[in-house]
Amino acid sequence: MLEKISLRTTTRQELVNVTDQVKQVVSAYGIQEGMCFVYCPHSTAGLVVNSYLDALTLKDITLELDRIVPTRVDFFHTFDTPSDAVGHIKATLVGIDQSFIVHEGKLVLGSSQGILFAEFDGPRNRELFVKVITG
Fold first, then answer.
1. Closest by alpha carbon to 40, among 82, 78, 111, 90?
2. How far is residue 66's CA from residue 70's CA, in Å, rounded to a whole number?
3. Measured between alpha carbons, how far is 17 from 43 in angstroms, rounded to an integer?
4. What is the 3-state secondary structure (H, E, C) of 2-34?
5. CA dist., res. 135 & res. 133, Å (int)
6. Which residues is 130 bridged to in the sheet?
7. Tens digits of per-residue pLDDT, 51-65?
8. How many other C-beta atoms are found inside a 10 Å radius of the C-beta of residue 36?
């Protein structure tokens, strides 16, 4: 079974913690051992696994991505705005999927790790897909 998580981003660029929503999906499956796959079907957004305990970590990640890929007007493709091109590049850098081990009925993450939806061209209505497989 494939589950969908819907969310609304509120700014052009942000990291949204979706860990609890993914854990709820895993819990609902009731499996003890397996894998969980999270997929982002958007070309200007992605998924990051990192610490969520200190909000400044999220700010550092966002600012560093801005430094690496600044918004500028000389991109070849600027579908709606230059931020569209920036979003495509940032999504390529961070990736659009993550996989996790399910052990003893729980998602395996480090003590400070969270699953973060990375918005690069918002605000928008977005969705993620979660697939849990036993085994």
1. 90
2. 5
3. 19
4. EEEEEEECCCCCEEEECHHHHHHHHHHHCCCEE
5. 7
6. 3, 38
7. 988 889 999 999 999
8. 22
pLDDT digits (tens, 9 = 90+) for 47-96: 999 998 888 999 999 999 999 998 776 767 656 655 578 888 999 999 99
How much is the average pLDDT of 111-129? 96
If pLDDT is split at 50, 70 and 90, which confidence band does 23 have? Answer: very high
Q: What is the 3-state secondary structure (H, E, C) of the chain?
A: CEEEEEEECCCCCEEEECHHHHHHHHHHHCCCEEEEEEECCCCCEEEEEEECCCHHHHHHHHHHHHHHCCCCCCCCCCCCCHHHHHHHHHHHHHCCEEEEEEECCEECCCCCEEEEEEECCCCCEEEEEEEEEEC
- Amino acid code (one letter) for 43: S
Q: Which candidate, 123, 125, 64, 113, places its Cα nearest to that of 93?
A: 64
State residue 75's pLDDT score: 66
Q: Does domain 2-134 have CATH number 2.60.120.460?
A: yes
Q: What is the pTM of this model?
A: 0.92
